[in-house]
TrEMBL record:
It comes from the Bacteria. This is YbaK/aminoacyl-tRNA synthetase-associated domain-containing protein. InterPro entries: YbaK/aa-tRNA-synt-asso_dom_sf, YbaK/aa-tRNA-synth-assoc-dom. The lineage of its organism: Bacteria, Bacillati, Actinomycetota, Actinomycetes, Micromonosporales. It comes from Catellatospora coxensis. One of its GO terms (molecular function) is aminoacyl-tRNA deacylase activity. Residues 21-135 form the YbaK/aminoacyl-tRNA synthetase-associated domain. Pfam families: tRNA_edit (PF04073).
Length: 156
């Protein structure tokens, strides 16, 4: 785990468990490697509201962002996802490793309400490493907000 993510978790006093599992190619592989169900593999999505204005959206592994719900919650008409380079510049992390912990800036955090009361796993700043945390404790420490901001993953 990169120092900044681990340091941030320790500094926050958040109980956590580090899971080192090596490379994975899908959410299903990540869930199996972490010993959790797919909904507990939480995707940390970076969303852009405007120039140098981002937020983190925590999405259960079996769901996707509902852009209409998120726009309504934030009271904006337009949101976008930055490309990989812009996401790294905003957070300090590569896609697939992004976590609100130790980000270059403490962007706001919104978590889908379905995470409430669960143990979840998040990226930990480097590929093949995750951290398991209590979602409610994490959201409290991040001053995050729970809201209904996702839809079921579309059938493939």
């Amino acid at each position: 785990m990169t120092g900044s993510a681990l340091d941030a978790l320790v500094s926050a006093g958040l109980d956590h468990r580090v899971i080192r599992h090596g490379p994975v190619r899908s959410l299903a592989e990540a869930a199996a490697a972490r010993g959790v169900e797919i909904p507990d593999v939480v995707k940390t999505i970076v969303v852009r509201r405007g120039d140098d204005d981002f937020l983190f959206v925590l999405v259960p592994g079996d769901r996707v962002i509902s852009w209409p719900k998120l726009r309504a919650l934030l009271g904006v008409s337009r949101l976008s996802m930055p490309d990989a380079g812009e996401a790294k510049a905003a957070t300090g992390y590569e896609r697939g490793t992004i976590t609100p912990y130790g980000s270059l800036k403490p962007w706001p955090v919104i978590a889908d309400e379905r995470l409430r009361g669960r143990e979840i796993t998040l990226g930990a700043g480097e590929h093949g490493v995750a951290v398991a945390v209590d979602a409610d404790a994490a959201m409290s420490g991040l001053d995050g907000t729970y809201a209904d901001v996702t839809d079921p993953e579309p059938a493939k």
